[in-house]
Backbone:
């Protein structure tokens, strides 16, 4: 397989999909669009290339011929960082949100937002990913490059852990001493109080 089109066709066949199915799943106008990509009559732009990589669970390096290893490393699903940075940059520009405003909303430095937009080495932490997605009115699943639907969901997307579930289900220790059920309940009560106090303070700030 020497061309981008040949690799796209091979990946589709490996996934046992028709051109019509790919077109529907990836929200292309029709199957002819897929056919033109596979016949090298049209070259995918960077975003479409990244979308193909996500859809076929491979890398843009494989599709473009940089490597012949089509499997994603480290097992499990790996998001395409190029697609993430593209969606973040496009989303902030469309919403006319500055790097400084995004940084303030996420509790990080503007330099970090700039890095995420242009040269990320990994996805941001769960908290930042979810806050950025909220700013852009999309799901973190879409922003992270796990789905093509702006409101779609994916089981591969990192999820925040519910603190109460953590306390109830895990063998939690404090300074090496296991917490009893009574200890866990006391901690949960304190956290609930702090949580609602914080909510009230935020409401007063917005007035």
Residues:
């Amino acid at each position: 397989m020497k061309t981008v089109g040949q690799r796209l066709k091979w990946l589709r066949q490996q996934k046992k999909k028709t051109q019509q199915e790919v077109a529907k799943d990836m929200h292309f106008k029709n199957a002819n669009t897929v056919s033109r990509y596979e016949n090298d009559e049209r070259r995918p732009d960077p975003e479409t290339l990244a979308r193909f990589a996500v859809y076929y669970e491979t890398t843009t390096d494989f599709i473009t011929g940089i490597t012949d290893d089509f499997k994603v490393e480290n097992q499990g699903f790996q998001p395409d960082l190029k697609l993430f940075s593209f969606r973040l940059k496009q989303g902030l520009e469309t919403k006319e949100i500055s790097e400084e405003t995004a940084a303030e909303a996420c509790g990080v430095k503007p330099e970090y937002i700039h890095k995420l937009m242009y040269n990320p080495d990994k996805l941001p932490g769960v908290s930042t990913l979810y806050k950025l997605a909220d700013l852009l009115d999309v799901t973190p699943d879409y922003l992270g490059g796990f789905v093509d639907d702006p409101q779609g969901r994916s089981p591969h997307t990192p999820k925040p852990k519910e603190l109460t579930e953590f306390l109830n289900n895990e063998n939690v220790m404090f300074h090496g001493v296991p917490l009893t059920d009574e200890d866990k309940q006391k901690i949960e009560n304190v956290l609930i109080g702090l949580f609602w106090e914080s909510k009230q303070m935020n409401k007063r700030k917005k007035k």
Remarks:
- The two ends are 62 Å apart (CA to CA).
- Residues 81-144 form a domain with the 434 Repressor (Amino-terminal Domain) fold (CATH 1.10.260.40).
